[in-house]
Amino acid sequence: MRSMRRGIKEMDIILSRYAEARLAAMDDGTLGTYESLLSENDQDLYQWVTGQVAPPARFADLVSDISQVSCSGK
Fold first, then answer.
1. Do 55 and 48 contact (CB within 8 A), yes or no?
2. Percent of the chain scored above 70 by pLDDT?
3. Residue 55 phi, psi (nearest 5)
4. What is the C-alpha to C-alpha distance for residues 23 and 54, in angstroms, rounded to an integer?
5. How far apart are CA 54 and CA 16, in angstroms?
6. What's the CA gap between 31 and 25, in Å, rounded?
7. Could you write out the DSSP letters of every residue in 38-72?
8. pLDDT of residue 14
9. For residue 6, which of 46, 50, 33, 57 has the smallest C-alpha distance?
10. What is this structure's pTM?
11. In which element (H, E) is residue 34 found?
């Protein structure tokens, strides 16, 4: 639910799509990182996912995966 009700519509769409595609298969560590990511500001998240700004190292792999899912629609 937190993936769908963000603040800006773009992140609602991106994170909802990602959650649908990946959430069920996440291990505890990845799920914890995803939870932490959801606490970040939407404007920052959008810039990270779109490649405008590099994400913090702790989120780099996750943001890369979100970007791939977002672009591919898978």
1. yes
2. 88
3. -75, 160
4. 23
5. 22
6. 9
7. HTS-HHHHHHHHTTSSPPPGGGHHHHHHHHHHHHH
8. 92
9. 46
10. 0.85
11. helix 28-38
